[in-house]
Records
---
Amino acid sequence: MSRKITFSLGIAGLLLFVALGQVLNDDKNPAVGSDRTQPKNFDEGITLARQQGKKVVVDVYTDWCTWCKKMDQETYTDRLVTQALQDHFILIKLNAESSDPVTFNGETMTEAQFAQAAGVTGYPTTLFFDEHLKPITVVPGYAPPERFAQILRYFGQNHYKTTQFQDFLSQRGG
């Protein structure tokens, strides 16, 4: 795939917080399972996002990644995270080593090729797309539940359009 998917990385505060892996007081109350918060495969998730006019979160993982499994077990099961996902996003799981085909903007490629084109270099990595499937940003690394819920609210409620992430956190006591 010669065409690269371009992402805005202008949210340095967000990346700094995530990269440092600051652990806050996690809300350990898991959500009750709901089909609306269950991860979708890529093509199904993209179709659903178009139909519902929702943003997309792509959880890029590998089968061997310990931090990916930790994020699945602790972060994606957290009540605040599942609520933010349900309210604003379609969650897609994408295996960065898979040869399964996906279609994005009329172009078919493998999951591995999509991850590479998106600039993913480590795992887990979270990709954010707006309602029109335009890239918002890439968030590399593991995020604990409370931090990830804040990230989801920041993008899901469109605060990223008017407020720097550090200011968003300051306004909310984060």
---
Amino acid sequence: MATTFKTFLSEDVTSTRTLLHENIPITGSMVSDLFYQDNNIKNFSHERFQSVYDYPYLSSSANHIFDISFGISAESEVSGTTTGHIDIEKKSQMYNTMAQMLAGYDTTGSILRFDVDGDLSPASSDKHNDCVFLTFSRLLVKDEIKKGSVNLVLGSGSYGASIFDDLVTIADYGAATEYRINSPAGEYGILYSGSAATEGTGVGLVFYQAGVIVLTASLFGGDSNDFHNTTGRTDYLIGSSIQEISDVVRKRVQNINFNNTVELNSTIYFCRINHNEFNYSSNPTYLSESKIRVKEEKIDEPISYITTVGLYSSNNELLAVAKLSEPLKKTPQNSLILRTRLDF
């Protein structure tokens, strides 16, 4: 423990914020179960969503990647069809659950729908009423998804060899500066198909802090060879369970790529040591018979070697310790500034 303390002044302390990014590639071979023969795909008895793992999920080394689900709003063209409609209540519940968390409520207390261009006004008619939800794990997203880094490549063919015959690229073009903040879940961007952001052509939304991607079901044509065939898509959405629709989505994923973000906050302490300070060691072996060991002659200057910096509270309670990579020689002839950083 220290016997001599020095108080930090306001100019000795500063704070910084650093954003660290990591690229997250999710390949279609992992998602579409071509490699693991469905062992990395977990279905549940409640049949409300499907989970994808990077390894057979029963293995202790498996990591949860994301969940897939599907939902319809009350205004959907397929919500009014009750005859032969599989899981209609579950699909409605999933849409409402995701919408109330990500879109929120209007002034009347009604749940808002997902909007094509980010306008959450109830008066807007351009809505995503049939949606596929991709909910990514915190292991991948960390603090948030980096804006402008989302890229999905989806196949548009039917099952079999032609599943990737026609590919569509979906990305949050321009979202680094053009993102929305009118969501209770934080910031979100619009996903566009093609190669640029064009107003009115959004095919989904990405909620950066929540780690959720919402895609319009019009991207998936069910059993129809036509990727945008309305009749084939509607029949499939009605006659299929959430689990079956999740299979359709998953088997059409060729690649999902984004950068995550870790926010690193730091406090930097500048430990200033003047020429007349800390020239004597607090180590008890520094003295022998009341004499300084490093002094050979009485007139020699005291010498100490700084190896450790301790940060203390106002009550002199040790809070943090920093070790130097090598001892620093300190004499009355020199002064030092040690830069100590605490990350959190």
---
Amino acid sequence: MAKQTLYSLSKGRAATVRKFLHDDDIMPIRLRDLGLIEGGSVLALSGGGRGGIASYLIKGAVIALREEDCLNIVVSA
């Protein structure tokens, strides 16, 4: 079974963050600073459209993330 990533969430869908797959150590730290943590909830507000940017509701704040970063965040619905 393929892993579901944050980028695959459609608008209005909620999920729980399971794991970060980034090759570096810096991006997961930045994401955690924004409130995106393992076990935390996230709601997709807009899908990856033009420019590969998607927006999510995380702990009451709207955060826009690049496609390449969202593809490295494993979630479960």
---
Amino acid sequence: MRHHPSWREVRHEFMRDLVPINATCAVCRWWFPESSAASDPVGYCHFSPPTVEGWPQTNGDEDVCSAWETDYQPVPRVKAA
């Protein structure tokens, strides 16, 4: 008999390939802002090793690339007793 995987079994594989519409540098796990000011969208991408010039500088609100990853970790739900 053939096993049909449940959603719980395939969810990680399915969700891994989805990239949200707002996948800009500012919400990427590899991006670090240049300053602590929220209005300043300039930062550095730490996906690749730095070059002689340093880390690549990006605009967090507009720049995108194919290395985008989220650092979002969902919080497990706790059943009420």
